[in-house]
Automatic annotation (TrEMBL):
<dbReference type="InterPro" id="IPR038885">
    <property type="entry name" value="PLB1"/>
</dbReference>
<protein>
    <submittedName>
        <fullName>SGNH/GDSL hydrolase family protein</fullName>
    </submittedName>
</protein>
<dbReference type="GO" id="GO:0016787">
    <property type="term" value="F:hydrolase activity"/>
</dbReference>
<feature type="compositionally biased region" description="Low complexity">
    <location>
        <begin position="32"/>
        <end position="41"/>
    </location>
</feature>
<feature type="signal peptide">
    <location>
        <begin position="1"/>
        <end position="23"/>
    </location>
</feature>
<dbReference type="InterPro" id="IPR001087">
    <property type="entry name" value="GDSL"/>
</dbReference>
<keyword id="KW-0732">Signal</keyword>
<feature type="region of interest" description="Disordered">
    <location>
        <begin position="30"/>
        <end position="54"/>
    </location>
</feature>
<dbReference type="Pfam" id="PF00657">
    <property type="entry name" value="Lipase_GDSL"/>
</dbReference>
<keyword id="KW-0378">Hydrolase</keyword>
<dbReference type="InterPro" id="IPR036514">
    <property type="entry name" value="SGNH_hydro_sf"/>
</dbReference>
Length: 295
């Protein structure tokens, strides 16, 4: 009886030790130390793109100045897609910052008639405000010249755009940039050419390379318009490529170029520049791009 009892105790002790050994191996693995109860997960890296910047500066041309949106042949910055205060537009700045902050934390340095060569100077003005986001819409006036021969060469357009971004980066390396594509000028011509009033205003010198002799459909006129359109497409390719080289730059993917502006989105005075409604559509495009998830 004593031997049998002693043998039973030994068997139980071995079984318990074996069970503890297996449990310990499953819990922490071979010789690995047990995890600390106070260990914290590594923080997520801060994304390069901030979808809610706290200030906005705009550079560019007449579109960003709201030209012909409110009155004939005059700027209307309150209707600007980028920084305007008009409730009908609900500009990018208002959507991002709210109306009170947009009035204090957004600035418009665009100039009617500006070309890409003017952008570095505008950017120099903008960086003084230290904006977190800079919007760029330029290039239409580089194509809208007195003749196709006078259009800005693609190489010069690229160089000027790179210079503008360099000016920004030297002063504000972490500022973000939204770049809008150049609108489809030929589509604007096709929309506005049915308006007698619009064609009269065009004769004052609005985009003559595309809008001159608006009713002409001969081979020379067609070639001229196609040449302008091809240059616009080349400009947009430059905007896309240069922006892609900057980690804090977002191009609209051709959204402005692709947007089918109808008569409601065009100025009732010149049937070329965006109306208040058209400015609102541009603001929508910009807001979608700026707030999109991703890089």
């Amino acid at each position: 009886m004593r031997k049998r009892s002693h043998r039973s105790r030994v068997v139980v002790a071995v079984a318990v030790a074996t069970a503890l050994g297996v449990a310990g191996c499953d819990a922490v693995g071979d010789n690995s130390p047990a995890p600390s109860a106070s260990a914290k997960p590594s923080p997520r890296p801060t994304p390069l793109w901030d979808r809610s910047p706290s200030s906005v500066a705009a550079v560019g041309d007449s579109i960003t100045r709201g030209f012909d949106a409110c009155d004939v042949l005059s700027d209307c910055p309150e209707a600007s897609w980028a920084t305007g205060a008009s409730p009908e537009v609900d500009s990018l700045a208002v959507r991002l910052l709210g109306r009170p902050r947009a009035a204090e934390r957004s600035w418009n340095y665009a100039v009617t008639g500006a070309r890409m060569a003017d952008l570095p100077g505008q950017m120099t003005q903008a960086v003084r405000r230290k904006p977190q986001l800079v919007t760029v819409m330029a290039g239409a006036n580089d194509a809208c010249r007195a003749s196709t021969a006078a259009m800005t060469p693609v190489s010069g357009f690229r160089s000027d755009f790179e210079d503008a971004l360099r000016t920004l980066r030297e002063a504000l390396p972490k500022a973000q940039v939204f770049v809008a594509s150049v609108p489809n000028l030929k589509r604007l011509w096709s929309q506005g050419r049915n308006s007698p009033l619009g064609k009269q205003v065009w004769q004052l010198g609005i985009c003559p390379s595309m809008l001159g002799d608006a009713d002409a459909l001969d081979s020379a006129a067609t070639l001229r318009r196609d040449t302008v359109q091809k240059r616009v497409e080349d400009y947009n390719k430059v905007l896309k490529e240069v922006c892609a080289q900057d980690k804090r730059c977002r191009y609209d993917g051709g959204a402005v170029y692709d947007y089918r502006f109808g008569t409601a989105q065009l100025s009732r005075w010149d049937y070329f520049h965006p109306s208040v409604n058209g400015q609102a559509r541009l603001a929508e495009i910009a807001y979608r791009t700026v707030t999109a998830k991703g890089r």
